[in-house]
Design brief:
mainly beta; seven-stranded mixed beta sheet; four-stranded antiparallel beta sheet; globular
C-alpha cells in the first residue's frame, strides 16, 4: 500500500476555487499508479469525483463525475510525485471531505475500487 497525504482543503465562498494536492509520503511513490479523488458529504455515501491513470509514454486517461465536469481538473506532476485536483466555480453541494486514493481502477467513463487511501481534507463551500 501507499501512504498518501492530502492538503489544500478549506472554506471558500460559492464561485471560488481551491486546489487539492495528494502526495505520496516519504518512502512511497505514485509512479505507475492510478490516483483518484473521492468525496463524502455529510449524511451521504462516498462518491468518486475524478481519477487519472498512470502516464508513462502515453497521455493519462482522466475521468470526471458528471457534476464536476468543466469545473474540476485533475493533473499529476510525476517529478513532484503529486496529483492535483483544481476545483473552480465551487458550489455548496461540493462541500465534503475529499480523499485521494491510489492503486485502483480508472477508466474514461468511471472510477472503481482503490486500495490505498489518504486521511481526507475538508472542503466547505459556504457564503
Amino acid at each position: 500500500q501507499v501512504q498518501l497525504v492530502e492538503s489544500g482543503g478549506g472554506l471558500v465562498q460559492p464561485g471560488g476555487s481551491l486546489r487539492l494536492s495528494c502526495a505520496a509520503a516519504s518512502g512511497f511513490t505514485l509512479d505507475y499508479k492510478s490516483v483518484g479523488w473521492f468525496r463524502q458529504a455529510p449524511g451521504k455515501e462516498r462518491e468518486g469525483v475524478s481519477c487519472i491513470t498512470a502516464s508513462d509514454y502515453t497521455d493519462a486517461i482522466k475521468y470526471y463525475e458528471e457534476s464536476v465536469k468543466g469545473r474540476f481538473t485533475i493533473s499529476r506532476d510525476n517529478a513532484q510525485k503529486t496529483v492535483y485536483l483544481q476545483m473552480n466555480n465551487l458550489k455548496p453541494e461540493d462541500t465534503g471531505v475529499y480523499y485521494c486514493a491510489a492503486d485502483g481502477l480508472c477508466v474514461s467513463d468511471g472510477i472503481g475500487v482503490f486500495g490505498s487511501w489518504g486521511q481526507g481534507t475538508q472542503v466547505t463551500v459556504s457564503a
